[in-house]
Design a protein that fits this description.
Length: 89
């Protein structure tokens, strides 16, 4: 579960300033955190198919953001994928 304190930490770490919640880097980091929590949930609840569908949608959103970032700023794309330990094609 993504708590408010954890969200603020992520925004401070990846954002350009404290109020920067809309930049691509912050959105990818927030999606990655939600993906991690859903993955842990699905390890304990393997038959939860609605959560699995939500997880796949989040992974697709993150993939789209990463491809956008790769087109716009290749250096930021590489740094972000290393920091979040995301495999990219």
């Amino acid at each position: 579960m993504l708590t408010k304190n954890r969200k603020v930490e992520i925004v401070n770490k990846f954002g350009k300033n404290d109020a920067d919640t809309g930049s691509t880097e912050v959105q990818v980091a927030l999606l990655s955190e939600r993906i991690k929590s859903l993955t842990e949930h699905l390890r304990s609840q393997p038959k939860d198919f609605s959560s699995r569908r939500g997880l796949l949608k989040l992974v697709g959103q993150r993939r789209n953001f990463m491809s956008y970032l790769k087109k716009r700023n290749i250096d930021s794309h590489g740094d972000l994928s290393k920091q979040l330990k995301i495999r990219v094609k």
